[in-house]
Amino acid sequence: MYQFGPHKITESQVFFKSKYCLGLVNLKPITPGHVLVISRRVVPRLRDLSAEEATDMMLSAQKIGNVVEKEYQCTSLTTVIQDGPQAGQTVPHVHMHVIPRKIGDWANNDDIYDELAGKNKIRVDNEERLPRSEQEMKEESDMLRPFFTSIEE
Ligand code: AMP
Q1: Binding-site annotation, residues
Q2: pTM attached to this predicted model
């Protein structure tokens, strides 16, 4: 079991492990393949990470982004840290969103930021965003895990 801010994360949600970070599938992804890179240490802000931890987070996002962009048939990535509550952070544990993007996924490209802020801009495919079941998250995580060589701890 891991901690993501106040939330308990089961091993089955974790598809990537590096020295300082974990890759998690998302409870409420805004688009297919929207995943999170979190620090192993439970600290709220990017500034709370050491240089090694911050570097590891970026390198982890790079590796994870390469995989999700391809596996979800996308052609770009939105890679975002909402660093503090006024920037839209809702879980006080530093994390990077890795979101595969493709042509026409939102009517206006930057609508994704409203969606991230929970304003429920409807994606062009009109899909509703509901919390996913553990089983659904496990299946996605099981699909992604084999793409990575993880550091076990
Ligand atoms: P932020 O608003 O930038 O703090 O992002 C929080 C992210 O965490 C959102 O994408 C949520 O869907 C996601 N989230 C919240 N609770 C969980 C959870 N238990 N497991 C996985 N992702 C979660």
Answers
A1: 7, 26, 82, 88-91, 97
A2: 0.94
